[in-house]
Design brief:
Blueprint: H1 5-12, H2 18-29, H3 31-34, H4 39-46, H5 50-59, H6 65-79, H7 82-93, H8 98-116, H9 119-130, E1 135-138, H10 144-157, E2 161-164, H11 169-176, E3 184-189, H12 195-206, E4 210-215, E5 228-231, H13 244-260, H14 262-278
Parallel strand pairs: 1-2, 1-3, 3-4, 4-5
Helix pairs in contact: 4-5, 8-13, 9-13, 10-13, 11-12
Length: 289
Amino acid sequence: MRQDILSNLKNLEPTFSKGQRLIAQYILESYDKAAFMTANRLGKTVGVSESTVVRFAVELGYDGYPSMQKALQEMVVNRLTSVQRLEAANDRIGDQDILSMVLQSDMEKLRQTSETVDRDTFNATVNAVLGAERVYILGVRSAAPLARFLGYYLNYMFQNVHILTASGASEMFEQIVGVNSKDAVIAFSFPRYSKTTLKAAQYCHSTGATVIGVTDTKLSPLGECSDHVLVAKSNMVSLVDSLVAPLSVVNALIVAIAAKKEKELATAFQELEHIWEEYHIYEKQDERV
């Protein structure tokens, strides 16, 4: 369902029964809390049965309550301010063990990403990077570490890698002004979606460059202007964005590209090992004995 669920509720409200209207009103007023309630808990909160909540979701066009809940959660991630996200997270956590909850959530995001990311798109991304004259990597704010990590390893493999993490649009555009159709651009963007990254990606796309978007859904602002979209789930509703699944996708990209450049990398690393040895870059275990 592409339409915003809140807009849908407002439009359909006159047709609802008394019980459905209670559900709709609660969601409209407290969608940040409703998004993380079970059907049973939501029913008890508004004073209707669990079955009424389930039927309500179906009548809205979802195949069940979990689908409606997922739509609410995705909307919450995109709409909430940092303060609201923190409040929603605290309400959701309650007395739970935070470490276990976060680890379980991250594992679930990895599972969802493994099931969602398209293998043909992944292979096309690898080939686009390998065939590019220059590689630009865009990631600002909380996505900046992903850009730097990918760039760190691609710099071992390519001579012309540009890592752009400036959060200002002016500075970003100054660094991508020369992008053209021979280049590949890898951009990272997750809720609440940086306008700087989006504008830069749109510009790069307009020049004919191959734009690869690493984002949480193909329907995200970045996804809609990318030639290839690698979907990585990251929607942990808290002050902290979960980068576990996106980082795993980045790891896979690095490994796949390195496999294609195995001979060149072996030669480069042999030279690097001599440099690291000569200038004592790494501590040796035998020196600590």
